[in-house]
Amino acid sequence: MNSLTGMVATTNKPLRILVVDHCPEDREMYRRLLGRHDGQQYIFWDAPTAADALQVCRHEQPDCILLDYLLPDIDGLQFLVELADLKGEDLIPVVVITGHGNEWVAAQAIKSGAQDYFVKDSLTQELLCGAVRNAIQKVSLLRMIEDQRRELARANDELLSVNRNLTDISRLKSEFLANASHELRTPLNSILGFLRLVLDGMCDSAEEERDFIQTSFDSARSLLELINNLLDISKMEAGKMTLDLEAVNLEKLFNDVYLLTHVQAQEKSVTLEFHAPEDGATSVRADYGKLKQILLNLVGNALKFTDMGGITVRAIPVVERGFVTIDVVDTGVGIRPEIQGKLFGKFVQGDGSATRKHGGTGLGLTITKNLVELMGGVIQLESEGVGKGTRVSFTVPIYREDEEQGADWRQVAGQGTAVKGDPSQPLVLIAEDDLHFRKMLEDLAHQAGFSTVYALTADDAVMLARKMKPVAITLDHALLVPEHPVLTDGWDAYAALKTDANTAGIPVIFITGYDAYLEDRLQEISPIEAPRFISKPFTWEEFTEALNEAAESGSTPQGPEKTGRTAQSP
């Protein structure tokens, strides 16, 4: 293959021409014809064989190829096939030039991907320059058409996906209306029917009359539960769900739920076991009524779908990470893998037959998930498949005796706007609702040479980041949720920070005990966009290293060098 030759002209962008011809005189002729037309600048590659030309195309992208049909190694048609195999959809314009006119060869060349075909004897400067120009324009149009085709295909796929989602939503709503109608009519018919029997004196005994009234009462409670579920969903969507957070003793909570559910378990001949923490002293920070509602929903579901075996409810304190995990495990019908991820959506149930057999509206898990997240926890569902039971796990923050309660975290402005530590040092925003853990992070940051400000909610974290422009942000995943929140957890805060031009450049470090949950969420974004995260418990060195690296990577001044003292986090 010959060396690269440049032709000087006046235009800004030279056209790169690959001349594939074994005859040096012909190659020189093409240079002369092109080089003297319209002042266009050209760069030429010479390739006397097809192998030389393909080697050039492996490393370069010519703007156009002038191809002799008769080459020493293969003919022009075979070259076009090998070029297409090499470049794929990355088209290169080709003009075939031959010494012998042949209509069949011309047709085959165009069919094989060439943009034009000429006989050397008829070639003029105007024809060659026009052919090169037209070939480049044709391929440019083909690329544009292909790009538009891909865009249309992508848009069509999106529309199909949206249409499928709308179809699913429409189907789910139709099923919900049918189920809700059934669930409303059934207890209403029972109430009206049994009370009419009582009023008409159709009871054979006082005992039967009492049974009829009791059945009416139970039906009324079922009707009230359905109405409450509908009202809860409405409140949650309107952002009007309120919480009364307090210390909730898990042993007492478990006893109360057991009293309300054990009769149903006995009627189905399945076991029902509750295991509170062994010391009996672990309390969680939650709304007692809402936490009880969560457990009743989950235990009720487990009882509904378990005909043999049993249900086990167990609380597992994870003190070093600041939360308690509550597992509800059953040996029931299990759940198909393909629908497990959808069950926390509104109106969704396992399938139509389960709906008809077991009843319900498909709102229970949606309400449960929202309540768990409102109290600063996460919820997950696992099942190995049909017939293999189900485990639902959720977390609740541990209650601290001197925890800041009440109005402090409910105030949008927060109580942490005052800078702590040396205000001349780089500022770190600590988003953490656990008082003890937050104070530990503040102390570690101060020792590492940073000042701090804190937030207790996701909304406050984003607001303070915009206002105070810290060099880094430490973010817990599970944060307190105030009334009418815009953001409910650390992941929401992270997404809001990264989509705001004012805060997108601030590095974020997740410091959380929710490793598995966070890792699942990280799969949704590219590694380049992913935040750093530290798992509880961690060492002082890990924290300061992450803090300094974050400060250095951001657009704000970097923090001071880390020291070497180590301390285990509580």
Structural notes for this entry:
It contains 17 helices and 18 strands. It is of the alpha/beta class and 570 residues long. It folds into four domains: 5-123, Rossmann fold (3-Layer(aba) Sandwich); 171-238, Helix Hairpins, CATH 1.10.287.130; 246-397, Histidine kinase-like ATPase, C-terminal domain (Heat Shock Protein 90); 407-553, Rossmann fold (3-Layer(aba) Sandwich), CATH 3.40.50. The strands form four sheets. The chain has a six-stranded mixed sheet, with helices on both faces. A five-stranded mixed sheet has the order 8-10-11-13-12. The protein is elongated and about 115 Å long. The two termini are 70 Å apart.
How many distinct folded domains? 4
Strand content: 15-25%
**Structural class by sheet pairing and helices:** alpha/beta
What are the low-pLDDT stretches, counting only 5+ consecutive residues below 50? 1-11, 352-356, 404-416, 556-570
CATH architecture of the largest domain: 2-Layer Sandwich
Instruction: Tell how many strands the DSSP assignment holds.
Output: 18
Give the averaged pLDDT, no decimals.
79
Q: What is the CATH C level class of the largest domain, in words? A: Alpha Beta
Q: Biggest β-sheet, characterized?
A: 6 strands, mixed
Alpha-carbon Rg, integer: 36 Å
**CATH fold-level name of the largest domain:** Heat Shock Protein 90
Amino-to-carboxy terminus distance: 70 Å
